[in-house]
Amino acid sequence: MGVKSKIVIGNWKMNGSAELVESFTRTMLDNQAAYAGIRVVLCPPFTLLQAMADALEGGPILLGAQNVSEFEQGAHTGEISAPMLASMGTKMVIIGHSERRASRGENDRIIAAKVKQALSVGMLPVLCVGETAEEKARGDSGAVVWQQLSVVLHAIGSELFGQLIVAYEPIWAIGSGSTASTDDILTITTAIHAKLAQLGIQLPLLYGGSVNAGNAAQISSLPTISGLLVGGASLQAGQFLLLCSNTAKGA
């Protein structure tokens, strides 16, 4: 996937049902012209992955997962491995989402191990990074985000790191209804691109944080942004379809 391809990833979080998978995918697949030219990925909970895989089979929408274990196999109760996800047709996996960093104790070392596992089976990691409101207030946004990126970069090397997608999701904006300003987004994402360019790395950079159909076109049209990571707005098919359509228009 080229850096210039716009990407929209719908993260259902711990929501959804088999009925929603059926109705949601029908709406999306019946209206493919609305998002022609961009990549759309849907990430349901683990229990709905097979239903989603079946519903999306043969269509343009890719299947994604919300998490992956840092272990390949073994006595790890409740964990889902990268080979398991890949066997179901999962093409992408969200890693390091701020909700997991905050509530599940995921640190940069664990996240780096998860990235390695995803890459080992050919899945594309979507590495999430972002700062808290307190870190932003101290003027530490850039340093915090680069530290999160650096741990993974050092763990896997620049060649593999260039295969990733990075999603900048300011923690203070997620689920709050308060989207980062375009100036804030540009400042951080420009700095990320510049630091990576010094290492010869170019990759897609997404934005996540209270994204909706109303702000999708403006954010996705920023020169440093290759797409969007969408949470709550990905649960209603009509709104998500409009969001994807607006992103395509902003491409």
From TrEMBL:
GO terms for cellular component: cytosol. It catalyses: D-glyceraldehyde 3-phosphate = dihydroxyacetone phosphate. Substrate binds at N11, W12, K13, G175, S210, G231, G232. It comes from the Bacteria. The active site is at H97, E169. Its EC number is 5.3.1.1. It is found in: Cytoplasm. CDD domains: TIM. The keyword Ribonucleoprotein does not apply. One of its GO terms (molecular function) is triose-phosphate isomerase activity. Involved in the gluconeogenesis. Catalyzes stereospecifically the conversion of dihydroxyacetone phosphate (DHAP) to D-glyceraldehyde-3-phosphate (G3P). Belongs to the triosephosphate isomerase family. PANTHER family: TRIOSEPHOSPHATE ISOMERASE (PTHR21139). Homodimer. This is Triosephosphate isomerase. The gene is tpiA.
